[in-house]
Amino acid sequence: MSAERTLILVKPDGVSRGLVGEVIGRLERKGLTLVALELRTLERSVAETHYGEHASKPFFGELVDFITSGPLVALVAEGPRAVEASRGLIGATDPVKAAPGSLRGDYALEIGQNLVHGSDSPESAKREIDLFFPGLS
Ligand code: DAT
Ligand code: MG
What range defines the domain where residue 65 resides? Predict the structure, then answer.
């Protein structure tokens, strides 16, 4: 089995609501392994780089405001098809449409505060891991 790595963020809403353990527990129970973990509050420049693909979207300012609004937990998880596996655990971007049983489906209601980020492809994972944990991708 070849291992793949992905970047997961428990966003500020997840930290303030006390859901860090729930998110990490689900990743671990799925069989993914934690290889890095950090509580940090993002600089705007880091947030703008992380979400750079959305820079032209109308919600970009709110997105950066939210993701920098308080501490988040950044982690790297590893395992076979870690990107796809963790996107499945996280659920659809809109929490109202996210399947019950997924993290967003179970714990979120608003698209702007949807609890968790997970890289959407191995290429995104490399870029995002290099931003948060240089040398670990
Ligand atoms: P995902 O986080 O599922 O990868 P995305 O990359 O399309 O989704 O968007 C990044 C984040 O931006 C998303 O988690 C929440 C926010 N967002 C996306 N679409 C939005 C919208 N229509 N209104 C407000 N925020 C939005
Ligand atoms: Mg995305």
Answer: 4-132
